[in-house]
Amino acid sequence: MQRMALAQLLANGVCVALLMGLYIALSNLKDNVSRQESILLRARHRVERLEAVYLQKRRSEAVMQSLESNAGFGDVVGLEGRVKRLEIHVANAHELLIGFIYTKAPPVDELTALDQESDRLTQHIREKLFVYPPLPILQTTLLARDTSRGEVGAVLRHIFRDKKNGLFIECGALDGLTLSNTFYLERLLGWTGVLIEPEPNSFNELLQRKRNVLSIPTCLSRSRHPQLVPFTFGWHAYSRIDTLTPMSEHTNNVLCMPFFAILKAINRTDIDLFSLDIEGHELDVLRTIPWEEVDIKVLIVEHFNIAEGKQALEDFMTSKGYAVFPSTAEERMKGQWAEFDDIFVKKDVGLNES
User: CA-CA distances (angstroms) from residue 162 to 156, 235, 264?
Assistant: First the structure.
């Protein structure tokens, strides 16, 4: 009897020991699994960071290949310069860029002393201000449609004859779709170029359109130098340079870049279309352009808010070798574009009258 009790006790002790050993083994296994999970989590994060860097590198290469096929537009900036900016892009570049544009942080004072032909200014625009297009597979899937007031239909039909792969610059780009004079050209005919929009909310919406363009969150200077100017932010189209309104929560200082400096930054002085809608300062910007050094075939310019009036704009453009594109009564009725805008065509560019 005592032997049986002793045997039972020993058996129980063995079971307890086995259970304790199993418990310790399971605890060690659990700790090991936790360590492995932590290692895997850190590895996953590292892989995600590497994937982001790799994606941006592929994006750089794809953008450069795409732009290089577009009549030299690929000379915007070298691949080496793009790679140096990977960390900025991975860290949500456009927020950093907007943060720079809307403050007086250095080197604003130095920049405002630079002439529009300065190589240093060109480099600054390329490396600090441009936001580059996404990979082709990530670009917009929106259907091609004319979102302008009718200007684009007139330009395509009478001037460019459905020209493909053209180059544009649009200033006052808003959200990249509303009243856009370039969206249809890009989606239907493969054009590309630069969208300029200083209002931060509109610029963020513009980036979300994922268009195949360079984007820049700035305004155009009214002199040959960058200018820090008071800018009133309104709803979409009502944002403007405002030297009269006192500074408030709706007004901030914005750094404006000369138009010619942006042309230098993309290494092109010949463009097919320049669309300019900046709520009254259009003529001031046009006066900064060295017309003998550029070749702009067509301009769409809003005259509605120019203080000197529509005739002053037309007289200036005529003096630079441009003809006013005539709008028919039918086009005015359909698009109403002539009420707001003038279209100017370089005199050596033939019109399709059919």
Answer: 5, 33, 27
